[in-house]
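Thread: Modeling a multi-component assembly for a lab meeting

Hi all, long-time lurker, first post. My supervisor asked me to bring a structural picture of a complex we are working on to next week's group meeting, and I have zero experience with this. I have the sequence lines for every component (431 residues in total). Could someone generate the structure of the whole assembly? Inputs are pasted exactly as I received them:
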Amino acid sequence: MPDEEELVRLVARGDRAAFEQLYRRTAPWLAVRLRRRCADDQVVAEVMQETYLAVWRAAGGFAGATVNGSAVGWLWTIAARRLVDAFRRRARDTVAPLAEEPVSPAAEDEALSDVVGDEVGVALGRLAPELRQVLQAMVVDGLTVRETATLLGVPEGTVKTRARRARLAMREALS
Amino acid sequence: MTQHASPQLLRRYADSDPTLAADMVWALEVHLESCANCRARLATEASAVAPLVDEIWASIVPDTTPAAVHRTRRLAVWATPAMVPWLAMTALITLIALVADRLVAPPYPSLALLLAPIAPVAGVAAAWARGLDPAHELVAATPRAGLYLVLRRTLAVLVVVIPLMAVATWTSPLRWLLPCLAFTVATLALGGFVGVSRAAVGLVTGWAALVMGPSLVSQRLPSVLEPAALGAWVAVLVAGAVVVRLRATVYTRLAT
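Re: Modeling a multi-component assembly
Sure thing. I ran the full set together rather than chain by chain. Output:
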């Protein structure tokens, strides 16, 4: 079975069967991940549609270098940017509802986080939700300060402040 | 994360369970990016998004169906439909010349041989002339326009005309091929100054009045088509090619 990188290379040559296979294999994952960041299914559908059309048209430009050669990482980079764009479009009339953040970790998760390991989990759990959101957008999703600001609907300066506060809080918790 | 995600964790992640700890989510998301196995297992857990996934696929499909115009588009780089009637006319005249050659007595000069030099001129004119090609202005505005396109179309004309003439004259190509190419290049070179269609008309008229007419009247093959005149044709060919190359930019703004 070809891996995702191989599929993207086939898609670059206009192979529609490979494109469908790539879609079937990555779309559920992408849909779940996007839905965790945006509660509006319509926006999710829009973003996914744009993402896969971009993949179909720009597969030839997939160099792989920017995301350690991972086609899935590349896919997420495109989707994250499209999500930010969608938020920017919507920001004019309404504030798109962000997926709800947990208020406090359940006891079960505390136990689970010990399995994953460690102080980092505990430190993250103690972090205020708005600081965690900023860290997630910038660290896990790889967005810039400006994109994070658009996604969260706060000014850029606030994102910078929160990122700094989150960093300090994490360092304090880990020391 | 070195071990794979548990089914419970995947299910809670897929259901957007808000009580899932942030570090678990982060670790899982980073792991999912690199693990095809866990992504596939997530897909089986995430039955809630299945309708959404199918719906999005249905909306993508029409935009990714390949357009079926590739072949004609590729052909359009080499020829324009406006060339077809002119090439057909060339073929018809060649055919008439062939028939005429069969009917008249041998001392009479071969009509096909006399026509050979000017045979491609009409096609070349149609390849790059505003008056003959309705789409000329559109084509001239494209990035491909210019000498490159002119030469491609000229080549397309020659590919059709040269085999025709080879059959019609049925003699050594030495006698007609060089004049034929020399006239083609001369049409383009002159066309750079006065427009390709005017150049074509001028050259055809000149050839008919100065060479073909007298030759038909005197019933002798003109001396310019004898093998001794080859040097002169080579000179015309080279001079024409040099002029075309030096004035290459003129074809991007050809008016007529």
